Amino acid sequence: MRCDVVAVGTELLLGQIIDSNSAWIGGELAAHGIDSLVQVKVGDNIDRIVLQLERRLAEADAVIMCGGLGPTHDDLTREAIARVMGVELELDEALGDVIRDMFASRGRRMPENNLRQAMVPAGASIIPQTRGTAPGLVCPVTVDGVEKVVFAVPGVPHEMHDMFHRGIIPELQRRSGERFTIASRVLLTWGESESGLNERLDDVIAELDEAGNPTLAFLASGWNGLKVRLTAKGADAVEAARILDPWEERLRAELGDLVFGTGDETIESVVLDLMRQKGWSIGCAESVTGGLVGGRITAVSGCSDVFRGSIVSYASEVKYDLLGVPEGPVVSEESALAMAHGARRVLGCDVALSLTGVAGPGTQDGQPAGTLFCGLVWPDGEATQYFRLPGLREQMRQFSVINSLNWLRTTLT
Amino acid sequence: MRCDVVAVGTELLLGQIIDSNSAWIGGELAAHGIDSLVQVKVGDNIDRIVLQLERRLAEADAVIMCGGLGPTHDDLTREAIARVMGVELELDEALGDVIRDMFASRGRRMPENNLRQAMVPAGASIIPQTRGTAPGLVCPVTVDGVEKVVFAVPGVPHEMHDMFHRGIIPELQRRSGERFTIASRVLLTWGESESGLNERLDDVIAELDEAGNPTLAFLASGWNGLKVRLTAKGADAVEAARILDPWEERLRAELGDLVFGTGDETIESVVLDLMRQKGWSIGCAESVTGGLVGGRITAVSGCSDVFRGSIVSYASEVKYDLLGVPEGPVVSEESALAMAHGARRVLGCDVALSLTGVAGPGTQDGQPAGTLFCGLVWPDGEATQYFRLPGLREQMRQFSVINSLNWLRTTLT
């Protein structure tokens, strides 16, 4: 089964947005045993979209079109597919109502052109939208007497990812007639570089290459850590799991404390669970991160049972006056520890984590950009930690978040 | 002049590396007045590379191939170009010496396969390498009696960028004989949907389509707002600017207060500049956003001159005890205003912005997910605002950030 990708949008060709969607789609297709051999970017021009779609359909069994489903005059994916199918666009009344209701529920007037998103090529079926207004499309098309299919999904990643798993993968597996199951195990790690992990796992990787199934991949995901993914192909979920179990054990044995979670966990959800186990509430004092740690923790729904809040003490005076940090240089071990004690008192929490550092550009208190001091106070102890982090301003700040939370995890576990 | 791009590498299709090279190339070509209308990713397979290169050459005047120039067996770009040119690969002795010398100078043994990088299609010329071992190639090819050209550059960005400006742009300009410049103006807007903007600008868009130059595009950039971009083609920067000026004026007249900034500004940088104009310091009290507002503001380097900090009062007790919010439901106008007053007192700032709401899933204080109340206190006034926002938990929180900051802007401007 071969499924190529056509990403639609002039902004992709002008480099204003980098097309990461087709790379994501290629990775997911591969994980489900489907080849994606050519991926194309084309601008918002009906003739060129049609030509590129026809070229992909001539070579592949299926094509995923990503983007160009919005309501405006330059959203042309629907028209292009209809032209390739040789059919008209028809208004889907049910879709029209969904879109009208969405605007109504927000008490907003609906510009008429939003109904463009309810236009569907005759003979196509819908992948219902759950997050946006543009639905996905499943469009059967016959090419030289061969049954093929064109999928259309929005370019907004979280909308696209959701529709891909709900509407595209099941349809592709149905068409391919292949019945094997692909199952993955993801170990979340922090504290070692990709090449470092690679080295630690040299022997395991050699044995895996030998075995061929499961396969192993490293997925760098920025401040969500470095993921190690095992993917196995089995007759069913049970067999796939049986194949994965011993290899996951091997990986855990090799990686030890570097593994902080699995699957959809995050360092912040792991820290929150740790607090629940201990029966402790937690709060923060943030300077260099300006609220990113609190922002990350509160992204986890249900965090309110243990998370109290965070004191973003960006100005030195706030550190002195509110947190009781002794006057003087604020990028230091002493300051970090005082910030943690201050946050614990002000927020009335059992555990307090503090971050003070230099994001750059430029130095502060004689410390270079990349300097991070963390403080940690809990009911029966306290600790500080120094980090020297890479990256420009924003990257340094994001590394600060995961490094501080992972340090809290290893310190209190 | 049209120059398409073919990025070569199986890792690009598997999503192990995101192809940012073709986006960069597209942006640079546009800046030099050259169209890049289709960009393709293909894996390390000689037949497929040849087929995709032939397809690009059938449509474009020139093609840039990026990647596949390394020394290993799966670096096939040279072979593919030679096949399309209908010529043999020949060893370029001078190149061979350069590569041998490079290894010698590093005191390293040269694996023989490195000489693959000295193989050149007969009739091609060289873009000398200054940073790596793989040279670039300029390969003239005749397609249906028309003179066209294929360029080959390495996939390593800094090597590719260097060769692009040295060897590709001059050759393309020589061939096109054209000398015009492309210039863009970006207006950042908030407060109207993409379709709403499209409707407000219906007449302008019609006139622009008539004129053909400049062109207009909408770029949704999530919580960075909705961008409206004008792009003009002119003999030089001065003429391009002269073409853009009246149209930018038209857009500003139509969009009015929806426009919060231009170019690389952000809503937070605009708010910080507004505070500087007024000579006011600013702080926040965040509940539903958990620190995201502070995190966004502190992403702007140099914010410390006006930004004091943020009180992330996630637990109700922190709102009551630290900010002096009256006990009772905390998702309300009254609570939002009290939070702002409390933050202004605790942080010692001139302006305080507060956010309290329901990110969901589920309701709070009888309010549905998507509810946001904001409070604002400044030296000579106070205000509150209710928003009903779309989206799941994280999307709602991000909309809360830009809506609250944009409301602050319109209230205090």
From TrEMBL, chains A, B:
Coiled coil: none annotated. CDD domains: cinA. Pfam families: CinA, CinA_KH, MoCF_biosynth. SMART domains: MoCF_biosynth. InterPro entries: CinA, CinA-like_C, CinA_C, CinA_KH, Competence-induced_CinA, MoaB/Mog-like_dom_sf, MoaB/Mog_dom. Residues 4-175 form the MoaB/Mog domain. Belongs to the CinA family. HAMAP family: CinA_B (MF_00226_B). NCBIfam families: cinA_nterm (TIGR00200), PncC_domain (TIGR00199), PRK00549.1 (NF001813). This is CinA-like protein.
